[in-house]
Amino acid sequence: MDKYIIIPQKSKSIYKEQIWSGRLYNGRDIIVSIVDIYESGYFKMELSKTDLKKIMKKDNVVLNDYKIIFSYLEDKCGNFNFLRNISHFSENDINEINKLLYDDVNTVKDIRNNDFIELYDLENHWFTCNDIIYGIECSNCLYEKL
User: Fold this and answer.
1) Cα separation of 112 and 141, whole Å?
2) What would you report as the CA-atom Rg of the chain, rounded to the nearest whole angstrom?
3) Which of 19, 28, 134, 136 could form a disulfide with 24 if both were Cys (CB 3.0 to 4.6 A apart)?
């Protein structure tokens, strides 16, 4: 295994997806993804030669599939949110979800409109962050062996 710095050369080609889970008052589980897009950054990783060759052949890579030692993300330039399995929820469920996500019983914000979600609102309603996934569009990356 060797250590590499992977630097995407195209702007806005790095994302970080936070996966949050919570529960409605009726007991139904919900999963919300909050995705941030970054202008630039780099990752220090430990990779085998085989893994490096696989990554270099792909256009998009979920970095969590490999050993990330360090990440540096700069200039968050975009954000979007989505409710997983949204088609499985009734309109009443989605209204309740919106009240929880936006910490306001009279909210006009809606997850379907990609309205910004404050993380402390999720934490206030007992949501937990189960995973953070890092990914890059790597069709144009610089790979530097350390």
Assistant:
1) 33
2) 18
3) 28
Task: Count CB-CB contacts under 10 A for residue 31.
Answer: 14
d(Cα 74, Cα 40) in Å, to the nearest integer? 5
- What are the pLDDT digits (tens) for 11-53? 999 999 999 999 998 899 999 999 999 999 999 999 999 999 9
Single out the residue of 68, 75, 54, 67 nearest to residue 11, CA to CA.
Answer: 75
Whether the pTM exceeds 0.85: the reply is: yes
* Torsional sign, CA 98, 99, 103, 104: positive
Q: Is 24 exposed, middle or buried (0-12, 13-18, 19+ CB in 10 A)?
A: middle
